[in-house]
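Input chain follows. Return structure tokens only.
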Amino acid sequence: MSKVTIKHFGDVGYVKDGTQTFTFQLGDRTKPEFSKPVSSPEYESFLPVLRSGTYRILSYGQNNLEPNEVKEMISRNRLLPELIEKQIRMLYGQGPVLFIVKTLGREVSREFCSDPEIMEWLESWKESGLQDNYKTYLNKCIRSFYFDEGIFTRWRFNKSRRIGGSLPVAGLEHLSSTRCRFASKFEIDPYNYEDRDFKLVLFGDWQFAAPINFKVYPRFDFTTPFAYASCINYAKNPSQGEEVYAFNKFYRGIKEWIKGSNLTPRYINDYLENAFSARLHVIIPYSWVESKRQMLQDLCEKNAELEEAGKKLLTVKFGEEEVLEIGTDFNENILNKYINMELARFSRFLSGAGKNQGKIYSSYSYMTADGKQDRWTIEEVPQKYKEYIEGLTSYDKRADEVMLSAKGIDSSISNISKDGVISKSGADAYYNYMIYLSNLAIPEEVVTSDINYAIKLNFPEKYRQGFRVGFYRPVVHRQQEVSPADRPTNNQQP
């Protein structure tokens, strides 16, 4: 015999017995026991100031977990991870390089170059005890930018920097925004604060945060950069109206579309698993419930008398095996057990193909005050499979369009068009790709801000000469602009 699962949600619920599922309700009309408050967008930008021991912590999002929510929501989406990966690859290009900006008339260009001293320092990060080399650091920074538009960087300084020994800055380490929060040791007015009010960064797991688990770092101070052996800087793409943290404007704008897109596969799978068997809806009249309540109350009173007389107590039997012990004191839990056993009996009547011949399920009917018959009602649920699945897939396609539009990546370079077919127009791909590359100045500036300031501290003279770290993104030439001998199709290895 399969296990019967019965779930109640106030006066409604469902019964699942193997492959057989049906829903039920008590009474003709039901009201939800509670209503979930709808979050108001106008309060989304208000960030509470939290207390933890002696620290005042600026919440990152309303529940202090917005970076975690962004990470989970995007990583669970079928489209966004690869879409963001394309953005990362396009910004990273062929990797970080040194360059000097050259100005010729009205033209500004980059002259890519090499410098042995700077490159020796960049290549020494791992040997200096840092967790990543400079290329991996920049790769992580790009990812943080496209997820949060803000980057936390831990600066590591050499101990001998004050006595003219090695270079002042040993290297940089990327820290995830899911682990970093701004804080202060002083009282903070939650309605009137500035970025400069938060002199500390607390590093820890904020999903399971406890004061003893935090690592406390001072924020990088550009007025006294060598004040600490280690500190944290925060580079960001400014958000309108946001004073401290950067927020993913893309995520906030289409958050509900991402949620819906993530839920579509689950809806379809749940529907395929359960909906085919959930063909019936049972309405149990309150008059039946009230009659059973009165019956059980009477039995409990009778049992109290039997207990005083030292006699065996009465029980309620369901079939030959199931017995409901009711005791001497009535409570609503006894009534719920009785209803559940009745639903289980009804489920057994329904279950089993070809096994219901000769079976009879009976239930009393009742006369209401106005003379109408009140009885169990069994309604067949219409199964519109085609309409339901088509509705979900249509929503999914629209969600894809919205997400692509919000990311600003044309279908010709994202390889995703409105109907899910790869765009094959070479001209569209070329021009849209070139337009996209021309709009990467701000992302690159934010991503490389810390490493270029470290060059300023370590090599001030070279910094004045214009040496910077950027990314090399080669210009893609159209086929007609390349000689036949140099075209990719003629340079494939056999």
